[in-house]
Specification:
The protein has seven helices and eleven strands. The protein has about 230 residues and is α/β, with parallel strands linked by helices. It has one domain: Rossmann fold (3-Layer(aba) Sandwich), CATH 3.40.50.880. A hairpin with a 3-residue loop joins strand 10 and strand 11. The chain is globular, with a radius of gyration of 16 Å. The chain starts with a strand and ends with a helix. It is an enzyme of class 3 (hydrolase). This is Type 1 glutamine amidotransferase. InterPro entries: ChyE-like (IPR044992), Class_I_gatase-like (IPR029062), GATASE (IPR017926). It comes from Pseudohalocynthiibacter aestuariivivens.
Length: about 230
């Protein structure tokens, strides 16, 4: 099964050198499941020829907001709707989670409650409490009518959404382990509007175990089951 990675952002500098590109991080997350991968730099408007160029699609995170004025965002929304209509399974992570929701009729906003950074605990519908790393302020405020909430916590109501066998989206970052979060904390502290207390708490939680490998297996299972159901 071929997974097309739609690269909506890029790792930079030391993070890219030490930990790899976003396509590499996701290939590592999904390693061992027999997938092949091809990536398209959609942030720079490099798109697949059509929605059937891969057997499944993965929409990555990004520094951008889905409601911002960037040329690639409307084009990506069109592509997502085409894949959805054709039942080509699609997974979205962070920005991808939000982009898919917006493309399918949901609403995304900059959350008034502030940033969620580092290790967080989510209540997953079938699996109980699981820890994952997060880095976001934007949230899906209103989910599309087709979407069902499968994970949430007190800070993020729509933390993971399932759209039947067509799409699975997650607000957190299962591809980002503690060492990568540590690198981002070092790079980002003192920039933007990050609160020192939130950054401090994220540093304190860097060694807490997370369920990234388990979520990677769940994503792989979704891709395979959805592909067979087409």
């Amino acid at each position: 099964m071929k997974i097309g990675i739609l690269e909506c952002g890029h790792t930079e500098g030391e993070i890219a050198e030490k930990h790899g590109t976003l396509p590499t991080l996701f290939a590592n997350l999904l390693d061992g499941h027999g997938f092949t991968f091809e990536n398209w730099d959609v942030e720079n408007r490099v798109f697949p020829p059509d929605e059937f160029a891969a057997d499944g699609w993965l929409v990555t995170g990004s520094i951008h907001g889905v409601y911002e004025d960037h040329a690639f965002i409307p084009a990506l929304e069109i592509f997502v709707r085409q894949a959805y209509s054709a039942s080509v399974p699609t997974v979205g992570i962070c920005f991808g989670h939000q982009l898919i929701a917006q493309a399918l009729g949901g609403r995304v906003e900059k959350f008034q409650g502030g940033w969620m950074i580092g290790h967080q605990v989510y209540d997953f519908e079938e699996h109980g409490e699981l820890g994952l790393n997060a880095w976001h302020q934007d949230q899906v405020i209103e989910r599309p009518t087709d979407a069902r909430v499968i994970a949430s916590n007190d800070f993020c109501t729509n933390a993971a959404l399932l759209y039947g066998n067509r799409a699975l989206t997650i607000q957190a970052h299962p591809e980002l382990g503690g060492p990568i979060i540590a690198a981002y904390l070092k790079m980002c502290r003192g920039t933007r509007d990050y609160d020192d207390a939130i950054m401090d708490r994220a540093e304190e939680n860097l060694t807490r175990p997370d369920a990234s490998a388990f979520i990677g297996d769940q994503i792989a299972s979704f891709f395979k089951a959805a592909y067979l159901a087409r």
